[in-house]
Amino acid sequence: MSLDDRRADFPALRERPNARGPVYLDSACMSLVPQSVLDAMVEYYQDFPGCGGRSLHRFAEEVGRRYEATRAGFARRLGRADPRNIVFLRNSTEAINLVAQGLDWKPGERVLISDREHNSNLVVWQRLVAERGIRIEVLPLADNGTFDPEALEQRLARGIRLVSLFQTSNLDGQSLPIQEITERAHDHGALVLFDGCQAAPHEPIDLDRLGVDFYAVSGHKMLGPTGTGILAAAPGPLATLRPLVLGGETVEWSTLTDHELRPPPYRFEAGLQNYAGIVGAGAALEYLARLDATEMRSREVSLNRQVTGALEDEPRVRFLGPAAPEKRPSIVAFTLEGVDPHDAALFLDEGYGVMVRSGRHCVHSWYAERGIPGNVRASFYLYNRSSDADALIAGVRELLERVPSSGTSAGTTGSAPRPASGRRRGAGSRATAARSARPRHRVARGRARYARGSG
Ligand SMILES: Cc1ncc(COP(=O)(O)O)c(C=O)c1O
Hints:
By secondary structure, this protein is of the alpha/beta class. Helix content is 37%, strand content 14%. It has 16 helices and 15 strands. β5, α7 (178-187) and β6 (191-195) form a beta-alpha-beta unit. It is globular and about 70 Å long. Pyridoxal-5'-phosphate binds next to α4.
């Protein structure tokens, strides 16, 4: 399938009259969906709008069949032999919360996280410190993407119950050696949880072979509809988790005084489920299965090289993460000296139709430690083409030309982090130049008011 044919499968990529782009470079936040996913969801509502697992009529039977087929599809994609180890949830955040809050922590037990985890893999642990007396150990990681096994060993030797790390970082795109970490953790008797949000969309994984205990995935980052998340667990550890929510579908039987829960995964899937979303996620998996992951990866690397190569000689551009694009294939993250990242994002969108992410990417802790108020992040996926990279490069160059390096906004290096309210389009005079550099006729008034832009 040619790239043009593939792009034609994604309705959101269609050109709009009198508008540049769309150049969608925010797939790390949420990917676009192909028409087949939309069709599958419409088909659910039009042809078999039932609730699975409860009624016995034909609609319910069909939705139950599709629901379980999607479960089997995720098991295949993620390398779990038994689909019963796949739990449907709303997103990765919920998957991580299920593990965190579902384990029977004793006071003093430790979880090991890295120094650049998404808030989804940080805040819940902080709450457990307060509520259950657990302790958080932090593994510092190198910005250049090199992994230090000694640092891991030192922490593991302190006695860790669970190692909970990203597989690929949403901040700078670096990946951790999942097999090595799993083996070392298991050698010390620790369980492992990997946040696979930024890895699973790009390549299949073999969780059973790797021995990973828990793995969190968001369907909406891999061509699926919003609100589709997965916990892919090993059977033993899954059975030890206490469900987060109880009620319909989780129960085998109940009396007025007692109940018995169903076996996993059903005990974790409370209430009427997101059937349309799950059916859509199944179609997304089918779409992904038709693609060559190696070809996808090399296209992402090539786009990343294109952007990195074009901007690395710009003295005001500073890249985050490993220098080599191959070590952060789908993400290019950078600061622009003297330009507020949110102003840069608005300029790129309004002037070039280029949609990127700006801010602290839900890793506020990392920025707070360094006193960096945020950065711009472009992320690539299977529908991006070379002209998308060109548009980003041209937009950044024009912005740098128009905005003096003396600083027009909150600054990008060395200054104190500003409040999390983020985007301050209308505030003060320091962002004036970047704002005035934006084409006036396209300024969407009021956007700043509701967009928090802090994440
Ligand atoms: C590494 C990482 N972890 C967790 C999340 C949270 O994902 P979700 O919003 O689907 O729960 C994200 C989202 O961007 C992410 O990139």
